[in-house]
């Protein structure tokens, strides 16, 4: 039997929780990812971002062309406004790598755009896509409407 005083870590269930765990891990371990992990923490975070944000953008996927390691993953996104971006995910967080798809090289004239790190993908999306919040609210309203229909039956 487990003592009530023992703390059992809960399974992360949202993109934000996974991101928070990774950022804390980065602060504690300096971004070092143990090689004994079956599925790395960044992989889990990238999958969560693609899954959770798919309905809030035109397109989102992990890049098949750019390097992908346990320390670095690139995600392509096309915002509701139709703007393409390549996002870089490291244990430090998310940043805009480029204003083009499958590209690691940012525009050197917009250095501040490419050097700011965001805690999670949703936070970054709020910055690059003003229509994101509207689409997010529409998705929530649709799901609530479906739940209401099921509850009436």
Automatic annotation (TrEMBL):
Domain of life (superkingdom): Eukaryota
One GO biological process term: regulation of canonical Wnt signaling pathway
Domain GSKIP as annotated: residue spans: 43-147
SUPFAM superfamilies documented for this protein: Hypothetical protein c14orf129, hspc210
Family of this protein: Belongs to the GSKIP family.
Official protein name in the record: GSKIP domain-containing protein
Species name: Caenorhabditis elegans
Native organism taxonomy: Eukaryota, Metazoa, Ecdysozoa, Nematoda, Chromadorea
């Amino acid at each position: 039997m487990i003592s009530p005083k023992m703390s059992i870590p809960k399974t992360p269930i949202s993109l934000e929780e996974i991101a928070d765990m990774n950022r804390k891990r980065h602060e504690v371990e300096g971004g070092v990812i143990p090689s004994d992990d079956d599925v790395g923490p960044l992989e889990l975070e990238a999958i969560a971002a693609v899954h959770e944000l798919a309905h809030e953008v035109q397109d989102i996927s992990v890049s098949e062309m750019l390097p992908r390691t346990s320390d670095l993953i690139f995600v392509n996104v096309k915002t509701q406004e139709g703007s393409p971006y390549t996002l870089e995910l490291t244990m430090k967080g998310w940043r805009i790598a480029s204003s083009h798809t499958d590209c690691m090289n940012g525009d050197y004239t917009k250095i501040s755009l490419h050097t700011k790190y965001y805690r999670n993908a949703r936070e970054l999306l709020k910055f690059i896509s003003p229509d994101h919040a509207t689409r997010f609210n529409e998705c929530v309203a649709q799901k609530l409407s479906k739940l209401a229909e099921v509850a009436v039956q």
